[in-house]
Design a protein that fits this description.
Strand 4 and strand 5 form a beta hairpin. The two termini are 34 Å apart. The protein has a 6-stranded mixed sheet. It has a 4-stranded parallel sheet with strand order 1-7-3-8. By secondary structure, it is α/β, with parallel strands linked by helices. The chain contains 9 helices and 17 strands.
């Protein structure tokens, strides 16, 4: 399978840690707007179908899939230094989607982008899919479409060894907590009432640099991403319980209903097969060494119709 790599220009927020602008410091944000009472992120997408429509035909006519990812997410999507190929749990899923639509020799163009660019780039149809540890939320469902859930996790705090921070509580008052701009951690910290100071950066990798330099006291991110950071720096540790439930889905343009149904059909096959399923094979390769065994297997699919 061929691979093309594209990075979003630094002007829109993807500069590396060495040349990135200093992070934005914000006092605790206001609580998010009320959700629609009928919204259920677990049942966000339509039922599976392999009937081709405009979106699938557009991908075939172009000859390659354009996928938004984060090539700074160790274990999920990062660049293998030897092969110079993207690798990781999310990358495996992208390649499965491409093969199903375009065949075994499918070409994928990977576009690396920060969280804040995910929705605008989907709405502008600059990418076909976003597979970037992106949580399905009721707020985001107003702007983009999602597949069924492909992974379940939640937010946790990551701190240096010896930190007095032990959890998401009053000990955070006045502490500087780093999070990715445009991520769901922004609302979580903003509505927490802990009195922590939010420090927003372009990505959780930038947060790692800020924590290592002592510019912040903790990182708030998904446990899955935090585990990847801890695997890169053994002086860090996760503290406190999981704070919420985050459901990862493949995000697509709201108008591309046929593609959403097709991805849901692909996910049905990707989850099937028990311990030998493509989902479990990918989990065991990338995530099990850090997150441990996953006897429950992939999350069960639920649909809006």
């Amino acid at each position: 399978m061929a691979t093309l790599l594209t990075a979003v220009p630094a002007a829109v927020g993807t500069a590396g840690p060495a040349d990135a602008p200093r992070p934005t410091v914000l006092r605790t944000a206001a609580a998010p707007a009320a959700r629609e009472p009928s919204c259920d992120p677990r049942r966000a997408g339509p039922s599976p179908s392999r009937v081709d429509g405009e979106a699938v035909r557009r991908i075939r006519e172009r000859g390659h899939l354009v996928a938004g990812v984060d090539l700074n997410s160790h274990l999920w999507a990062s660049l293998d230094q030897d092969a110079q190929e993207p690798v990781g749990f999310d990358v495996d899923l992208v390649r499965a989607i491409a093969r199903d639509i375009l065949g075994p020799k499918a070409t994928v163009r990977f576009v690396s982008m920060p969280p804040s660019q995910r929705i605008p780039r989907l709405q502008a149809r600059q990418v076909d899919v976003i597979v970037r540890t992106m949580s399905i939320t009721c707020e985001r469902l107003a702007d983009v479409a999602f597949s069924s859930v492909y992974f379940e996790t939640g937010h946790r705090l990551l701190v240096p060894e010896g930190s007095r921070i032990t959890g998401f509580d009053a000990k955070l008052r006045g502490k500087r907590v780093c999070l990715s701009k445009g991520s769901s951690a922004v609302d979580l910290l903003g509505s927490s009432g802990t009195g922590a100071v939010a420090v927003e950066t372009s990505s959780h990798l930038d947060c790692l640099v800020e924590l290592q330099q002592g510019a912040v006291d903790a990182i708030l991110t998904h446990a899955t991403l935090a585990a990847g950071l801890a695997a890169q720096d053994p002086t860090l540790r996760l503290v406190g319980p999981r704070l919420d439930t985050s459901l990862y889905g493949v995000a697509m343009n709201k108008g591309d209903t046929d593609l959403v149904r097709r991805v849901n059909a692909i996910l049905e096959d990707y989850r099937a097969g028990g311990a030998g399923s493509p989902w479990m094979v990918s989990y065991d390769r990338w995530l099990a060494p850090t997150l441990g065994a996953h006897p429950e297997g992939p999350p069960k699919a639920e649909y809006a119709d």
